[in-house]
Amino acid sequence: MHILLLIIFILAGWKWGDWKNWRKYYPTILFFIIGDLLYNYLLYDYTMWRFHTSFDKFILPNHTLISIAVTFISFPVKVLIYLGHYPENKSKFIQFIYIFAWILFFTLFEFGALNLGILSHHNGWNLIATFFFYIVIFVMLRLHQDRQLLTWVISFGLIIFLCIYFDVPITSMK
């Protein structure tokens, strides 16, 4: 199932991604990837969500390989589509609707993944946390385009907040 979803992401990126301006979005793509790799490293033994194998388990046999594939395939595509079509010169209301549509879409996408059994939540994480997390992600991706240093500072503060809120034991970190 993950391979099928990744192929869909690749096709969507090919169709709607702003590939001609990929260099403009490259720092934000790296920011997104680094954030996910940091999450996977710090919370390796105390995960908030976990990918599960499906019929494609001979290609992606475990959470780690699925996560790497998602990180390096779907994340760049998401950024190239999301920022490539961001309504830059539109009203704040249109921008709000655009961001909210992305938040809603990916929250519903995760709801589907949960129901298909290819994703599970752990250690207090739930769909409400996912919804708020997507708010943070999509606002931060947009902010990162203009204010990289501020975005990093906010991100480290959010990491600390989330570790405290979800009572992540320091001893579970590598």
TrEMBL record:
Q: Does the keyword Transmembrane helix apply?
A: yes
* Entry keywords, A to Z: Membrane, Transmembrane, Transmembrane helix
Task: Write out the transmembrane intervals.
Answer: 25-44, 65-84, 96-118, 125-143, 149-168
- InterPro entries in alphabetical order: CBO0543-like (IPR048147)
Q: What is this protein called?
A: Uncharacterized protein
Q: Please name the source species.
A: Fictibacillus arsenicus
